[in-house]
């Protein structure tokens, strides 16, 4: 497994409740751009529409050697089992839960996969507490 990119902001902004591995529907030049590492998950999120799950705001830069280019932030379909999508839909209808991408990677068979997570947003005071805990751990390791 080769990790292409991770969403580091997600671990800081959200409490991760559950992770899922999903396939992603891409065009040929998008796959080439992802393999080159020209993808960003910043501000990306997933939504469920008509029993299908889509990722929005995921930026894939155009592949420079192609003659045609697709839209960089288009809506892309994710491939999950229907049972998983129904479970996610039930959870996100609860207050404060969302679906965010954590990382994009290429599996052993050479297929591009995305790891998404069911997450709950953190409050500002929770973020401060986590930063304090990390600083205390760092100081203890340093001594």
TrEMBL record:
Recorded hits in CDD domains, A to Z, give: SmpB
Which ranges does the record mark as transmembrane?
Answer: none
Keywords in alphabetical order: Cytoplasm, RNA-binding
State whether keyword Mitochondrion applies: no
Does this UniProt record's set of keywords contain Lipid biosynthesis? no
Outline what the protein does. Required for rescue of stalled ribosomes mediated by trans-translation. Binds to transfer-messenger RNA (tmRNA), required for stable association of tmRNA with ribosomes. tmRNA and SmpB together mimic tRNA shape, replacing the anticodon stem-loop with SmpB. tmRNA is encoded by the ssrA gene; the 2 termini fold to resemble tRNA(Ala) and it encodes a 'tag peptide', a short internal open reading frame. During trans-translation Ala-aminoacylated tmRNA acts like a tRNA, entering the A-site of stalled ribosomes, displacing the stalled mRNA.
Q: What is this protein called?
A: SsrA-binding protein
Protein encoded by which gene: smpB
